[in-house]
Amino acid sequence: MQIERLPETRQHAHPGTVALVTGATSGIGLDVARQLIRHGVTVWLGARDVEKGERTARSLGPSARVVQLEVTDAVSVEAAAAQVGELDVLVNNAGVNPGGDDIDGTTLEQLRTAYDTNVFGLIGVTQAFLPALRRSAHPRIVNVSSGTGSLTWNAGPNPQFDWEAVKGGGLAYRTSKTAVNGVTLLTAQALGDRFKVNAVAPGLRRTGIVPGMSVGGDPAEAAAGIVRLALLPDDGPTGALWSWDGTRAPW
């Protein structure tokens, strides 16, 4: 069976491209912002903590701007959309992982925490910035998902993650990312081919998403896969889940 891959094209940011990255002050989001800036993009750093955001922006240079953004707070989201104004690229990166419990141990509070940020927050931010994205000549939305949210990969052993070790676990986080995949597909269908709406499975990375986790790959590697989707050409794909390495991932 042939593996579908993203087309090999030189990454290109149109002049004046503006992006917003949620959860941009650390981990994968910070590397996404850094790499987009290297491509000539002006990047708004979505930050819950404005002071941390301003420190991060200073470290990234004059093409970085900061906007206070708590994705679970509708007032914050609305204010951020008003402050940012015009937008071409939205990277929904902010996410939380409330625990690795299975059906026996997962609490409804864990589920609410995961879905409030990973799903409802993502939808709320997307809706708030849709008017700006519709004004863009090259609108792009990238939703950071997870390979552990793929129902196909979850259904049986696969090389993407230690299936036996996580089988049945992480109910709150993993199902929230399954929901992100569904939201991505239906959003792409609703917005049409002019928009490029895709999800990405970044792989296991050394980030704060799992407290104390010291294993995993370089976040910058995952960020490169996200940036590739953020800068897709106008004939690029939409409505798909992609692995960080540019190969198509199953729903």
- Please give the largest β-sheet: 8 strands, mixed
Number of strands: 8
**Approximate strand percentage:** 5-15%
How many angstroms does the end-to-end distance come to? 17 Å
What is the arithmetic mean of pLDDT? 92
Which structural category do the helix and sheet elements fall into?
A: alpha/beta
Envelope shape: globular
Strand order of the largest sheet: 3-2-1-4-5-6-7-8
What string gives the helices and strands in order? EHEHEHEHEHHHEHEE
Helix content: 40-55%
Helix tally?
A: 8
Low-confidence parts lasting 5 or more residues at pLDDT below 50? none
Q: Radius of gyration over alpha carbons?
A: 17 Å
Which features does this protein show?
251 residues; alpha/beta; 8 helices; 8 strands; 41% helix
Task: Explain how this protein is built.
The protein is α/β, with parallel strands linked by helices and 251 residues long. It has helices spanning 27-38, 50-60, 74-84, 108-135, 151-154, 163-166, 171-191, 219-230, and strands at residues 18-21, 42-47, 64-68, 89-92, 140-144, 196-201, 240-243, 248-249. 41% of the residues lie in helices and 14% in strands. It has an eight-stranded mixed beta sheet with strand order 3-2-1-4-5-6-7-8, sandwiched between helices. Helix 1 (27-38) crosses helix 8 and helix 3 packs parallel to helix 4 (108-135). It is globular. The mean pLDDT is 92.
